[in-house]
């Protein structure tokens, strides 16, 4: 088994953010309520974000304390362990309000901490 590095995990976060944002483009909250597949897809993207955040090194987290690492991890834990009580209003709000900010933060970290990587 190979170790996954911070760069890869940050890319997982960025990709999941972008996918979630793409999924809801042009979608209303009511449409989300009526689309079980979309709801499950969005939850999965948030789980990926939280799982990847949980495995980011302490060193990187400490260099970027403005990123809500613990909130991502906490949301993932709630979604996974309290799956029967998911509040889709919170899922919607998180994606609409927090993911654009998070995506910008993660992209900035990728550029600042990994300038040698040209695949961004």
Can you walk through the features of this model?
73% of the residues lie in helices and 0% in strands. It has 6 helices and no strands. The protein has helices at residues 6-24, 29-33, 36-54, 58-63, 69-81, 88-113. Helix 1 (6-24) packs antiparallel against helix 3, helix 1 crosses helix 6 and helix 3 (36-54) crosses helix 5 (69-81). The longest helix has 26 residues, at 88-113.
On the 0 to 100 scale, the average pLDDT is 94
Task: Give the proportion of residues in helices.
Answer: over 70%
**What would you call the structural class?**
mainly alpha
Write down the overall geometry: globular
Largest sheet: none
Tell me the total number of β-strands. 0
Question: Whole-Å distance between the termini?
Answer: 26 Å
Strand portion: under 5%
Radius of gyration: 15 Å
The helix/strand series, from N terminus to C terminus, equals HHHHHH
Number of helical regions: 6
Q: Which stretches are poorly predicted, pLDDT < 50 over at least 5 residues?
A: none
């Amino acid at each position: 088994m190979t170790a996954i590095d911070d760069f890869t995990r940050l890319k997982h976060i960025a990709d999941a953010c972008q996918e979630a944002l793409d999924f809801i483009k042009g979608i209303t909250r009511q449409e989300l309520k009526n689309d079980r597949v979309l709801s499950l897809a969005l939850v999965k993207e948030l789980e990926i974000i939280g799982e990847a955040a949980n495995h980011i090194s302490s060193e990187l987290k400490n260099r970027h304390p403005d990123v809500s690492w613990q909130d991502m991890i906490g949301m993932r834990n709630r979604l996974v362990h309290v799956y029967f009580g998911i509040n889709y209003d919170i899922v919607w709000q998180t994606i609409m309000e927090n993911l654009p900010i998070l995506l910008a933060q993660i992209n900035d970290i990728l550029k600042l901490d990994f300038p040698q990587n040209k695949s961004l």
